[in-house]
Design brief:
Elements: E1 5-7, H1 15-22, H2 31-46, H3 48-58, H4 72-81, H5 84-102, E2 109-112, E3 118-125, E4 128-132, H6 144-156, E5 161-166, H7 176-185, E6 189-192, H8 195-204, E7 214-216, H9 221-229, E8 235-236, E9 244-249, H10 255-266, E10 273-278, H11 281-295, H12 301-311, E11 312-316, H13 320-330, E12 334-338, H14 342-346, E13 354-357, H15 364-368, E14 394-401, H16 404-420, H17 424-431
Parallel strand pairs: 1-11, 4-5, 4-7, 5-6, 7-8, 9-10, 9-12, 10-11, 12-13
Antiparallel strand pairs: 2-3, 3-14
Helix pairs in contact: 2-3, 2-8, 2-9, 4-7, 5-6, 5-7, 6-7, 8-9, 10-11, 16-17
């Protein structure tokens, strides 16, 4: 069978599934972490020379330093080379994503007090952002949506400089669809370089690639490990794990549709998790049968089958309340509420990266076209974090302008708090402004 079936009379009966999902959360140790740390140090020391060496070894045997930078005319030519219908779809998807993210713009604000004190929050974008775009299998399955989802919120935030990196194909080129998407967005700073050495270049800088302030974008385990090791050196969008979907369904759901949605995530990665919770045992068994039929025809059959076997589950739960309890424990990246009245259930959901309501809102509409960002917290981190947004490329500065009357009235209290903490210089910094001692 493609994935186990659980009959849960209580949420505790679901513990084996939770244990299996938790097992994916161990961060890389040993050889992967050591190799990645060595790559980061090597690029910091040797710059472009290291980038060329790694790219020759893993991507393009004939790569040279003058191939790192993509020329503007190549970007324009790529947009002209793909089918006009594809370019139109990319353009429409970009417009939807931009419209959604423009609603996220945060503004500076100010408040005043009667004594003339002014306080506020000043919101400013970071100076630069580095975006990683995977090239896909052999460079032939380009992650166009990743470029759109990462670049557009940075543009809406008004980041002045956006640098894009993507691994070259064996002949040293980038897939024209990636360059066409860049053309649609007006991006011009693009480099042919991938994996951990690309992340190192964006963080530390080289002769060709200037360093950036925030790194965003998905990648393989070496990309993710590099980002993990660079936390504190540059801003990181998030440490993303394998993709995951949880579906909470009642007996009004179509089992074939549910199976299709589970498979849409399982095909990503052998570690991807696909879980269906339903109030109907009959539906649960029907979903498992539908999974078998659909799985047999998928191009990525082996990857998908392994993901389902290791991290997939179909579970019949007592009722929707019990299902919501399990959803909140898992805090999934993607959640579908495939029920008759999803709005009535929405208020019971506290932890999920993105929530898809009803039978006609499959997860892929969020991946590509609807507008919300598809870069989302995984591995249970939706309990405390959010998806990529305009705020990911902004920072907030507190602004404090206290009037002389504020210091006279409250200075002694401030000094006392400082002395309670053993910080005499803090106390005297305030006292010198209202005392002649």
């Amino acid at each position: 069978m493609p994935c186990p079936l659980y009959l849960c009379s209580t949420p505790a009966d679901f513990a084996p599934v939770l244990d299996r999902l938790t097992a994916r959360q161990t961060p890389p140790q040993g050889e992967i972490a050591e190799r990645t740390a060595d790559i980061l140090a090597d690029v910091a020391a040797r710059g472009d020379t290291a980038l060329v060496d790694y790219t020759r070894r893993f991507d393009c045997p004939d790569f040279t330093a003058d191939m790192l930078c993509v020329a503007p005319d190549e970007i324009k030519a790529a947009a002209a080379s793909i089918p006009a219908s594809d370019l139109a779809i990319i353009t429409e998807a970009a417009a939807n994503i931009r419209q959604f993210h423009e609603a996220q713009i945060q503004h500076s604000w100010w408040m005043t007090r009667p004594d003339g004190t002014l306080l506020g929050r000043m919101v400013t974008p970071v100076d630069s952002a580095g975006l990683y775009v995977p090239g896909g299998i052999g460079g032939e399955t380009p992650l166009i949506s990743s470029l759109l989802m990462n670049a557009i919120p940075a543009q809406v935030a008004k980041v002045a400089r956006i640098a894009v990196v993507s691994p070259p194909r064996k002949d040293g080129t980038l897939n024209p669809s990636i360059l066409a998407a860049a053309h649609v967005l007006g991006l011009t700073e693009i480099y042919r370089v991938g994996s951990a050495w690309a992340i190192a270049a964006l963080a530390h800088g080289t002769k060709t690639i200037a360093p950036t302030d925030v790194l965003a974008g998905p990648g393989n385990i070496f990309v993710t490990t590099a980002k993990r090791l660079l936390v504190g050196t540059v801003g990181i969008d998030m440490i993303a794990g394998p993709s995951e979907i949880v579906i909470l369904a009642d007996d009004t759901a179509n089992p074939d549709w549910l199976a299709a949605d589970m498979l849409s995530q399982a095909e990503h990665d052998p570690l991807a998790a696909s879980v269906c919770l339903t109030t109907s045992e009959t539906l649960a068994r029907a979903v498992r049968e539908a999974l078998k039929g659909r799985l047999a025809t998928l191009p990525r059959h082996d990857i998908t089958a392994r993901a389902l076997a290791d991290f997939g589950a179909v579970a019949a739960v007592g009722d929707l309340d019990a299902g919501a309890t399990l959803v909140n424990r898992m805090a999934p990246e993607h959640l579908e509420l495939a029920v008759a009245d999803p709005w009535a259930l929405l208020g019971k959901i506290r932890h999920a990266g993105a929530i898809f309501l009803g039978h006609t809102s499959p997860e892929p509409v969020g991946d590509y076209f609807a507008g919300p960002n598809h870069v989302l917290p995984t591995m249970g981190t939706a309990r405390f974090s959010s998806g990529l947004s305009v705020a990911s490329f902004c920072k907030e500065s507190s602004v404090i302008a206290t009037a002389p009357g504020f210091v006279r009235e409250h200075g002694a209290k401030i000094a006392r708090l400082a002395r309670l903490e053993g910080l005499e210089a803090h106390a005297r910094s305030v006292e010198c402004r209202f005392s002649q001692k």
